Amino acid sequence: MWIVPESVISELITPEASFDAVESVFGAMASGDAYNFPVVREAIGHEDALYGFKGGFDQSGLVLGLKAGGYWPNNLEARGIINHQSTVFLFDPDTGKAKAMVGGNLLTALRTAAASSVSIKHLARKDARVLGMIGAGHQSHFQLRAAVKHRPFEKVVAWNYHPDMLPKLGETAAELGLPFEAVSLEDLGAQADVIISITSAFAPSLLDAHVTEGTHLACMGTDTKGKQEVEAALLARAVVFTDEVAQSISIGEAQHAVAEGLIAEADVHQIGAVINGAHPGRSSDAEITIFDGTGVGLQDLAVAQAVVDIAVEKGVAIEVDF
Ligand code: NAD
């Protein structure tokens, strides 16, 4: 069995490799070659933590496993470590033997950023120039870095529930050579061609009335029952895509619009179908598109498998007799 510790992963995997792994596994999900297992996600009643498992099997790539972990909201302030903590376990699909244990924290950020940027590549208007960011936590920096590779953005506008976190996101924008402006949600909606939301909110910040025609939104924060980032009515006005329909309507952003009867399960489309050419994606420059990125186990397994292959090749994977 191979162990690839968290500490070496940044030297091994690139955002580009993560993007390719995620785009390809989304395609495999839509063609039926790969499937995710039902998600377990529990409030454990300790440290306000949400803990769970996301697993799946990619029959085409023969990748089987799960990610265990979750979200500990007090980590950063109390312990100086990031709030999201996870580990990926890979198994040999021929025998069931454990194959690898891989640090999942950086991989989670990279695969989540890859997912929203896959949606930008396939769904945003080609002439998108202003990127709106809602959220300024750990993930938001990865989201911003990944997004700018897929459209020639000229400016970033941002809003966060905790405004004191915005200057740090501004530094990331500056590193990327982009002007950055902290704005109201009204302004953000008016200016942005693409909006990424990545917060831990349980109530909508962005309202239907804030969003203008032709916007593409990647709603990335809602991955648990009860969470919500945008008003449900916005999903009824948009064409909604997701990584995994079952997750989107139960733990994703679409859970609220479906529960309120504003959209049906059949209105939520797999992004993989767009990647494979089975769905046309955006149909006009006026259409609002939403990607409900719930985060699937197969994304984690895809990037973890890529990292194990590189780590073994470079001789940095630790081999244990297990
Ligand atoms: P973080 O703790 O570093 O940042 C949290 C963000 O949410 C900050 O911007 C904060 O200001 C904002 N926020 C907190 N309370 C809020 C409220 N009541 N209303 C609006 N905004 C609020 O967290 P992070 O690591 O950046 O992760 C952000 C979210 O993304 C988490 O909810 C996490 O579960 C989710 N996430 C989703 C995926 C996925 O695949 N979809 C992957 C990783 C993380």
Give the mean pLDDT. 97
List cofactors, ions and other ligands.
Answer: nicotinamide-adenine-dinucleotide
- Strand tally is 18
Radius of gyration: 19 Å
Can you tell me the overall shape?
Answer: globular
Order of helices and strands: EHHEEEEHEEHEHEHEHEEEEHEHHEHEHE
Unreliable residue runs: none
What characterizes the major β-sheet? Answer: 8 strands, mixed
Distance between the termini: 6 Å
- Which range does the strand content fall in? 25-35%
Tally of helical segments: 12
Helix content: 25-40%
Q: Strand pairing plus helix content: what structural class?
A: alpha/beta
Tell me what you see in this structure.
With 322 residues, the protein is of the alpha/beta class. 36% of the residues lie in helices and 26% in strands. The chain is built from twelve helices and 18 strands. It has helices at 6-12, 15-30, 75-79, 105-123, 138-147, 166-175, 185-191, 232-237, 245-250, 254-259, 271-275, 297-314, and strands spanning 2-4, 34-36, 40-43, 50-58, 63-71, 84-91, 98-103, 130-134, 155-159, 180-182, 194-197, 202-206, 216-219, 228-230, 239-242, 268-270, 289-292, 318-319. Strands 1, 2, 3, 4, 5, 6, 7 and 18 form an eight-stranded mixed sheet that branches. An eight-stranded parallel sheet has the order 10-9-8-11-13-17-15-16, with helices on both faces. Helix 2 (15-30) crosses helix 4 (105-123) and helix 4 (105-123) crosses helix 5. The chain is globular. The mean pLDDT is 97. The structure holds nicotinamide-adenine-dinucleotide. Nicotinamide-adenine-dinucleotide binds next to helix 4 and helix 5.
